[in-house]
Amino acid sequence: ILQLYVPLNFLGTYYRMIKQCMVDVESMFKLLNENKEVEDAPESKELVLNSKADARIEFEKVTFAYNPAERLILNHVSFTVEPGAKVALVGRSGAGKSTISKLIYRLYDIQGGVIRIAGQDVTKCTQRSVRLHIGIVPQDCVLFNDTIEYNIGFGKLGTGEVATRDEVMAAAEHAQFNSFVSKQPQGYETLVGERGLRLSGGEKQRVAIARALLKNPPIMVYDEATSSLDTHTEKQIMAAINFAAQGRTNLVIAHRLSTIMDSDQILVLKEGEVVERGEHTDLLAKPGGLYKDMWDQQLNARNTKADRIGSAASL
Ligand code: ATP
């Protein structure tokens, strides 16, 4: 038996290594599918970020087009996210919010202006070193056909380490996902993905937050799911984000304005330009402002929905 066990064990190790590599490549391509043209400059340096207290993001007059021959997507966008702060990006669909998050992750290079992280121009730093310091919580995260444990623990791969079960559980707890997992008969061994349990948008977003927590980066970028969430799930996600945001530099792309009212600063984007900026109460006080307009619209939509539910209940 021992004679058999040794080679099998050996094979197991290789299987895991190969699987790990395949998953890395798969995830990398999914993430980078967008663009494979960004290349490190020959003399590029490593981004140096020794402390979370240095994790400042600066956009200075950033101009960008996916296709330089066509229209500009961002036009002279300037803002700063101070270390430890939470800045929200809002604006109508197509305004350029997700594009900003892609540029921070250096999925594309810009045509004008500068993007700095901790004072360093990201175009002069290796992509790998930039991405190592940023946790991304996408709208719709990629799930592997594997267990919940693997899907969360995968987050730590960015650091070159494999997460332990305890670490996965702690991250899930902070991401408000542990109670969902404990309801599954197979707990963390539950298979998810296309061949397993299908997760909802809100559940996937919590997996993404747990993953990002394991990476423990100084910078977090959250792209709030557009799909409508019930009030309970929305609260859980907000609590998860608020936990994850502590002590980091945070940029939140928000679709529901109610989730970002507490931000240190809100940037309102319109057709690739920042047209308003400030705290929630300042922006609401701006008569005729875009933020106020969007806020009123969302409030009306909520009230109409509540009316419908109310009148249905009274029937
Ligand atoms: P939403 O709220 O709908 O997610 P957004 O504000 O995040 O919208 P972006 O996704 O940043 O908007 O898109 C800004 C503009 O850039 C849109 O007009 C979009 O069509 C265009 N765009 C986005 N991705 C690409 C791409 N890969 N290639 C070309 N154009 C793109």
Automatic annotation (TrEMBL):
Presence of keyword Disulfide bond: no
UniProt keywords, alphabetically: ATP-binding, Membrane, Nucleotide-binding, Transmembrane, Transmembrane helix, Transport
Transmembrane segments: 1-18
Top-rank taxon: Eukaryota
Name of the protein described by the UniProt record: ABC transporter, conserved site
ABC transporter domain sequence ranges: 57-296
Cellular localisation: Membrane
GO MF terms held by the record: ABC-type transporter activity; ATP binding; ATP hydrolysis activity
Portion of the full-length sequence here: 321 to 635 of 637
GO cellular component, one term: membrane
Family to which this protein belongs: Belongs to the ABC transporter superfamily. ABCB family. Heavy Metal importer (TC 3.A.1.210) subfamily.
